[in-house]
Amino acid sequence: MAEADAKVLTPATDLAAKAHRLYPGESAAYAKARTALIAEEVELRRMLERVAAHRRALPEAPVVTKDYTFEGPSGTVHLADLFEGHDTLVTYCWMYGPERERPRPMCTQFIGPLAANAADIRQRVGLAVIARSPVVRMQAFAEERGWRNLPLYSDSPEAFGRDHNAWHDDGDWPSYDVFTKDRNGTIRHFWGSELGGTQDPGQDPRGAPEMSPLWNVLDTTPAGRGTDWYPKIDYD
Predict the structure, then answer these.
(1) 25 CB contacts (<8 Å, ≥6 apart)?
(2) Which of 68, 145, 137 is nearest to 98 (CA)?
(3) Are 65 and 20 in contact (CB under 8 A)?
(4) Cβ contacts of residue 57 below 8 Å, gap of 6+?
(5) Are the C-beta atoms of 117 and 90 separated by less than 8 Å?
(6) How far apart are CA 17 and CA 36, in angstroms?
(7) What residues contact 172, with CB distance under 8 A and at least 6 apart?
(8) Of 11, 44, 38, nearest to 22 (Cα)?
(9) C-beta contacts of 31-35 below 8 A and 24+ residues apart
(10) 168 pairs with which residues across the strands?
(11) Which of 86, 95, 161 lies closest to 126 in space, CA to CA?
(12) Separation CA 215–CA 4 (nearest Å)
């Protein structure tokens, strides 16, 4: 958002005062606090929009010089193939290596909603979920979860994941990355999430904005996320 645009915005407190509708039984104290909270939510929305604008305005991104290959359902493909005809590609490296009996629950809870929106996302950009496990193993788990329209690829050479901070000698780490491809076929690494080390004391590693519906929903509840609950692959 440009500075000129910011100067003409209606104050968040004014928007909040118009937005809040009284609920049955509200006290004056609740109404006042709720209206103040709406104003903060407006400011948060504006901050997220400013951050997104800053992201889009990043200087020219570094060129990808390696010809990364992956194993897909139909055989070997290259990074350029994952764009699916678009000029932008979103990749997510999934913590599901061949040594894991089951995938990482924290990754899985993120991929589920991603799969639910995959058909929509792929109308605008390329999408690929990548792991070190063989693609047939990934597909079997996707079928178990009911995931559809989700392009799955195996990074068996591990070159892509190691270069993009996903695969390490001491274990895997999730990695969300965005690439662009111009008319000449030049691929650039536009942006990547950097989760480790940016959290505040008492928090698990997390980025901003929070892209997981699970945590967004829990953040609206009185108890919030808590500190002793994490999602599972299976529940008894």
Answers:
(1) none
(2) 137
(3) no
(4) none
(5) no
(6) 8
(7) 93, 95, 97, 104, 132, 161, 166
(8) 38
(9) none
(10) 171
(11) 86
(12) 34
Residue 14, SS3? Answer: helix
The DSSP annotation for 136-203 comes to: HHHHHHHHHHT--S--EEE-TT-HHHHHTT-EETTEE--EEEEEEE-TT--EEEEEE---TT-SPTT-
For the chain, how many residues are written? 236
Q: For CA atoms 226, 104, 110, 164, give the dihedral sign.
A: positive
**What tens-digit pLDDT sequence spans the chain (236 residues)?**
444 455 689 999 999 999 888 889 999 999 999 999 999 999 999 999 999 999 999 999 999 999 999 999 999 999 999 999 999 999 999 999 999 999 999 999 999 999 999 999 999 999 999 999 999 999 999 999 999 999 999 999 999 999 999 999 988 999 999 999 999 999 999 999 876 667 778 777 777 778 899 999 999 999 998 888 999 999 97
Neighbouring-strand partners of residue 70: 77
Q: What is the dihedral of CA 38, 39, 45, 46, to 10 degrees?
A: 170
Q: 3-class SS at 88?
A: strand
Residues facing residue 78 across a β-bridge = 69
Among 69, 87, 232, 212, which residue's Cα sits nearest to residue 135? 69
